Amino acid sequence: MKRESFFARNPSVLVFIAILALFTLGVTLASEAFGAGLISTSFIKTLGKTLCLCLIAVAMDLVWGFAGILSLGHFAFFGLGGYMVGMWLMYERTRDIVVASMANAPIPPTPAEIDAAIGTQIFGVVGSSEFPAIWFFSGSLVMQLLLVLLVPGLLALIFGWLAFRSRVTGVYLSILTQAMTLALALYLFQNDSGLRGNNGLSGLQNLPGVTASQAVVSVWFLWASALALGLGYLLAAWVVSGKFGSVIRGIRDDEARVRFLGYSVEGYKLFIFTLTALIAGIAGALYYPQAGIINPAEVAPIASIYLAVWVAIGGRGRLYGAVIGAAFVSLVSSWFTGGQVPSVNLGVYTINWVEWWQVILGLSFVLVTLFAPKGIGGLFDLAQGRLVPNRHGADYGPDQGALMEREGRE
Amino acid sequence: MSTLLEVSGVSVTFDGYRAIRNLSFNIGPAEMRAIIGPNGAGKTTFMDIVTGKTRPDEGRVLWGEKSISLTRMSEAKIAQIGIGRKFQRPTVFEDQSVFDNLLLSLKNKRGPFSVLFYRKTPSDTERVHALAEEIGLADQLPRKSGELSHGQKQWLEIGMLLAQEPQLLLVDEPAAGMTPEEREHTTSLLVQAAKTRAVVVVEHDMEFVRRLDCRVTVLHEGSVLAEGSLDHVTANQQVIDVYLGR
User: Fold this and answer.
1) Do the chains contact at A264 and B111, CB–CB below 8 Å?
2) Does the keyword Nucleotide-binding apply (chain B) (predicted)?
């Protein structure tokens, strides 16, 4: 029996990777650092951040669209990934500054003095100068990068184990995940949490030891984000393409049936929940150096709800739908909230889009849920239905196929 | 005769209501058994207990030659050791093809990692085709199972159970809502299956039970009222009073 390759069975993956590569190339050629300078550095950062949001949307689609677990807490993992990489960025950069300023002192500073000076610099805003224990590895990039995976992964593993083992499902699970991300946000808001309270970590756009300008660094991060999105998409597509995908879609549609077929439903849920938490952590670790700052508001419950809205609008249950949803909604959102859209003066009332955008987003979410449950991604079905009528094998005659084609146009 | 499944002295109470009282039931390795009884007799609860969905308050449920206790096992574990269950309402994965439904059910390793790295082997494909032939869906393999008729879905679910290669099949009202021809096919599927394994059929329809031509257990208010051939139990005055007489 001849095996078809993974790409032959999933042509949309190749198309996606190609579009992503073309996009990255195009942006690079239009950038200030490597090309014509058509796109400002700040917009390149926006695009890079958008790619990271697309990556977490892919994770959300895996856990919600395929496995049916409506997690409203994945931004907690995203934020933790950002914090972990932010700790290293902040420590190293502060260290560089401190060492440079002490270099002119008559007596060379001892390592302890340098350490104390860094501590004062970083934790002065929360009235402390001591390094909390969680900063133990902050001097090591390798360790902090490992923590980008370990911290969200462990949180997801423990939370998921407790929740799934107790067979918490549906809306109750969604509420629990909201509680998780809220608890994390409230904890981080405290000054003695060790992560600078509501100040968060800042100056993350400056890479320690790198002298290149932000114009160059922004393109690097765009590349890294595109690579991560490409690999994440590939991984997700591989996970859902085979029997594993069959099992998790089975869990989504009929949990009891899967259980009585002998599959440990809880084990599968835990697996997919943790895997997506890892992807979210990586996405966050790439996002926040481009944003430059992370604070506890980033893991507020509303962020994870937005994530669900993106995936719903884009079309859950198909990976490219999630990417389209995240890219479309977040870009439109930054356009509206960036104050670039002229207000509409109605005489008695002026529509200010910064405020009204939320209403539009909420309304479109409701409309998509009611009238187009397949989301934007469903449009591809229409396009495809026009080209190749889906005849479900040889059984249907051409007449019925033609009927479906006509239905597709409607 | 050796016993495959031994249920003895089992009782279950839901919020003060005793759904099962002191129920005992045995079945051998290659035997067909029909369970009949009026609504609320405890037929479905009985299946829930055997498959691990409901934990009995007291009593024993022992499995196989080694007499393993099932009362502490998870549903998935029980399914893995060889008990398959068919629900009353046909439950197949409607969003997936008939082929994928059967492939998913084939007896293979069930852990997340082995499933993630699973690659379809020619023998598995062959097995799926053979099963599809057996349940009469050979020409429907690429179709989404949601498009199948009610009867076809029931057969697909039976096929999914057979794919697990269970030693005991628990089947809840397989003939409900079927046309006479479909019933006939269902009967022959179950009779065929019972040649190599134990099959327990819960059924309301007397005509269908008669066709199965097997021992019958009558449940009433959570315990066994009578057991024997269909003619024997239908002649029992108690059975007539509580069930047939209505």
Assistant:
1) yes
2) yes
Output the average pLDDT for chain A.
88
State how far Cα A74 lies from the chain centre.
8
* Closest chain A residue to the Cα of B148, Cα to Cα: A392
Q: What is the ipTM of this complex?
A: 0.90
pLDDT at A402: 35
Task: Tell if the CB–CB gap between B93 and A254 is shorter than 8 Å.
Answer: yes
What is the model's pLDDT at position A164? Answer: 96
- Does residue A398 have a pLDDT over 70? no
Residue whose C-alpha is closest to residue A195's, from A180, A205, A185: A185
Closest B-chain CA to A248: B112
Q: Does B111 touch chain A (CB under 8 A)?
A: yes
Closest chain B residue to A267, measured at CA: B112
Contacts of A271 in chain B (CB under 8 A): 112
Cβ-Cβ contacts under 8 Å, A260 against chain B:
51, 75, 79, 84-85
pLDDT for the residue A385: 63
Domain boundaries, chain B: 5-244
Q: What is the 3-state secondary structure (H, E, C) of chain A?
A: CCCCCHHHHCHHHHHHHHHHHHHHHHHHHHECCCCCCCECHHHHHHHHHHHHHHHHHHHHHHHHHHCCCCCCCHHHHHHHHHHHHHHHHHHHHHHHHHHHHHCCCCCCCCHHHHHHHHHHHHHHHHCCCCCCHHHCCCCCHHHHHHHHHHHHHHHHHHHHHHHHHCCCCHHHHHHHHHHHHHHHHHHHHCHHHCCCHHHCEECCCCCCCCCCCHHHHHHHHHHHHHHHHHHHHHHHHHHHHCHHHHHHHHHHHCHHHHHHCCCCHHHHHHHHHHHHHHHHHHHHHHHHHHHCEECHHHHCHHHHHHHHHHHHHHCCCCHHHHHHHHHHHHHHHHHHHCCCCCCEECCCCEECHHHHHHHHHHHHHHHHHHHCCCCCCHHHHHHHHHHCCCCCCCCCCHHHHHHHHHHHHC
pLDDT at A40 over 70: yes
B5-244 has which fold? Rossmann fold (3.40.50)
Task: Convert A56-78 to b/e letters by CB count within 10 Å (16 or more is b).
Answer: bbbbbbbbbbbbbbbbbbbbbbb
